[in-house]
Amino acid sequence: MKSMKILGIETSCDETAASVIENGRTILSNVIASQAEMHAKYGGIVPEVASRQHMVTIIPVLQQSLEEAGMLARDLDGVAVTYGPGLAGSLLIGVNAAKGLALADELPFIGLNHLEGHIYASWLEELDPEGRPGFPLMCLIASGGHTDLILMKGHGRFKLVGRTRDDAAGEAFDKAARVLGLGFPGGPEIQRVSSESRGVEPRFTRPRIKDSLDFSFSGLKSAVMRRAEERGIYPPQAGDSEPDPAKVADIAKAFQEAIVDSMVQHTTQAAKDHNVRGVLLGGGVAANTLLREEMKSRSPVEVIVPRPGLCTDNGAMIGAAAYFHMRQGKSYQWDMDVVPNLRLG
Ligand code: KG4
Ligand code: ZN
After folding, report:
1. Above 80 in pLDDT, residue 122?
2. Structurally, what CATH architecture does the domain formed by 5-120+310-326 represent?
3. Which of 20, 77, 92, 125 is the most buried (most CB within 10 A)?
4. Closest ligand 1 atom, CA of 170?
């Protein structure tokens, strides 16, 4: 069978990324230009800054990804791009670039759901297309914008069974980090300082919604703020005085334990309720070491999780997901628009 090489493009948030993927699995190139530093000074993502930066970096990123794969655009079998969910102005840059590239070389053009991309990151290095553990799978996709429990019954067959009622998990990490005077993005910072904690902070109450698999993280965020106030860390003091790093580390650790416990608890419950054969993790928060370890030790079934670099946004996951669409012969229209609030399942 002829191999299929797809260019995957991702610009839904603050990463300009492009990757060439062979047969949904082999990474021939994977280029990611992160804007995190630009947004760090604002403590979060500024949409207009993001879209304008995508505009500047998209062509060099595309060129580099083809160059590293050792090929020309006309040798591709398809061009795939995230068309939602995400920031409208950011999505537009990737979608337009993909359309132009596909049109110029008369290549199939495929629009992809970002969340489906996070799911298919696991097929890059972890899973065979038809191999273990088989379907159904319970997928926890936890990122800066989403915390969804998605039942995957087969390739392209998704059903949403739980979601956050308020903040996304990544957003909660980012907000907790800001309260604690840590940098952006907050997830890696919380993880880093937690490892230095003395473990003396009392535990935070775990959020629960009765008779539901849905998540809620805004109460936890407020609890972190109250605790930081009690410890004299928040609001920041005038002048240059830094908050006590030991106190910051202790609150960060207690927060990380609570949010991870909540995600593991809901996901393992969902896995039991739906009698699945495996649990799959994806999205930036799945890069979290404690989440990965806890899920593996508490899940009743096998846990599949990409390496941390493939959990955060990248083009490779889009190229992987597109392969399964192309196998099913799906085609997309040239008048396809971006859909900032696109759902999966
Ligand atoms: O999937 P992603 O790269 O972009 C979105 O689609 O949103 O996820 C970004 C989110 C950020 O909120 C970031 O703080 C979080 O993932 N994140 C982490 C870790 N690495 C990234 N959260 C917890 N622990 C980490 N190690
Ligand atoms: Zn993402």
Report:
1. yes
2. 2-Layer Sandwich (3.30)
3. 20
4. 12
